[in-house]
Design brief:
This protein is an alpha/beta fold. It has 14 helices and 15 strands. α2 (32-47) crosses α4 and α7 runs parallel beside α9 (221-233). The longest helix has 24 residues, at 76-99.
Length: 380
């Protein structure tokens, strides 16, 4: 169903705009007319009183075309070198385009490791806030030149979602080369139907998205749906729209039906809860019984050892873990007060029995409620 003005009830003051490789590049390299047009639109948003953070893909694709090679290399050192070549041209092109509007830019290259460390996470947020205070537009990309699997975001859709949560932004606008999420790939199916509004992101939505791959970037439509799940779970809306459409940002904010709008949960998560839920890589899984699942999901309780049925993985005190219900469904993430080995020993016990089992009892809770967050879509 069409929603004429999906943003009408939201107070949008800070925007994260992610632009994909397919929007920013063309057979000759970077698509300069599109970058110029988007730069003008971004400045219109700022003149309207909104802060803008840009997540820009395109380094790898630009490097491939600048070096005149057939496709992205498979070897990691070669891919890193191609990204380094492309990133230089990418940031220079954005800088020139925005300078025509009197705007200064700053480049920030991040890895997932920067977001998992609480100290580096906060440092990144402080830097970005300072740039915004100075009137400088941050342009963010994954640091492909040093990336390995262990420190990759995976794609810039995920990076954009993490930045949206990091900066307490009010919306994520994901600009790609098609008009939004369709029930089939519109590039191959003429009768594909655009889905204008999504409430719950279930398996059917993932199935639609899985049939629409990306061409130049690492992510297709499915990676955008995963990003939407993160930000909407935190209470932030997201829109997927066509970045090549003339005046696409004006259309969005003027209330004209544009792209696919993902409705957020009504409750907004704090920045720290977002970090717990979406920035940390879990090191293990704690399986809990039905009673503990109800206590956590409906009563806002802490996780006690009495509700734990099983534990898997190797982790220490303070590490992030997932907790799952009796059926194996992941319910959320949290930081543990005990190591995996100690949790195995005390699972099923009352808190009063911890000291007798371990010789000490630093905490009653295995995960305190302040250090856990629910992430399952089924908890809406």
């Amino acid at each position: 169903m069409k929603t004429s003005k999906p943003l009408e009830k939201f107070n949008i003051r800070r925007i994260v705009v992610k632009v994909g490789s397919n929007v920013l590049t063309c057979p000759q390299g970077l698509n300069l007319p599109v970058i110029d047009a988007l730069s003008q639109q971004l400045m219109r948003r700022e003149r309207s009183g909104q802060e803008v953070i840009l997540v820009s893909s395109g380094a790898m694709a630009a490097g491939v075309r600048k070096l005149a090679i057939d496709r992205r290399p498979e070897a990691i050192p070669a891919r890193q070198a191609v990204a380094a070549v492309g990133q230089a041209g990418l940031i220079l092109t954005w800088e020139k385009a925005l300078a025509r509007h009197g705007k200064k830019v700053a480049q920030m290259l991040l890895t997932a490791e920067d977001m998992t460390s609480r100290k580096r996470y906060l440092n990144a947020r402080n830097t970005l806030n300072t740039l915004l205070d100075w009137g400088v537009l941050p342009i963010i990309n994954e640091n492909d030149t040093v990336m390995v699997d262990e420190i990759r975001f995976g794609d810039n859709d995920n990076l954009a979602a993490v930045i949206t949560l990091l900066m307490d932004a009010d919306i994520l606008i994901n600009l790609t080369d098609i008009d939004g999420l369709y029930d089939r790939d519109p590039r191959t199916c003429q009768d594909a139907e655009l889905l204008s509004e999504i409430g719950t992101i279930g398996r059917e939505i993932e199935r639609y998205a899985g049939s629409i791959p990306g061409a130049l970037g690492t992510g297709g439509m499915l990676s955008k749906i995963k990003a939407a799940r993160k930000v909407t779970a935190a209470g932030i809306p997201m829109i997927i729209a066509n970045g090549k459409t003339t005046g696409v940002l004006a259309d969005i904010f003027d209330g004209r039906p544009t792209g696919t709008f993902f409705k957020p949960k009504t409750e907004r998560l704090s920045s720290r809860k977002c970090w717990l839920a979406f920035s940390l890589k879990p090191k293990g899984v704690i399986r809990i019984d039905a009673g503990a699942a109800r206590a956590l999901t409906t009563a806002g309780k802490s996780l006690l050892p009495s509700g734990i049925a099983a534990v898997s993985g190797q982790f220490g005190v303070g590490d992030p873990v997932q907790f799952a219900g009796p059926d194996g469904q992941v319910l959320g993430n949290g930081l543990v007060n005990y190591s995996a080995g100690d949790i195995y020993k005390i699972k099923g016990l009352r808190s009063s029995d911890i000291a007798g089992c371990l010789g000490e009892k630093p905490y009653d809770e295995v995960i305190h409620r302040d250090n856990l967050v629910l992430t399952s879509d089924n908890l809406n």
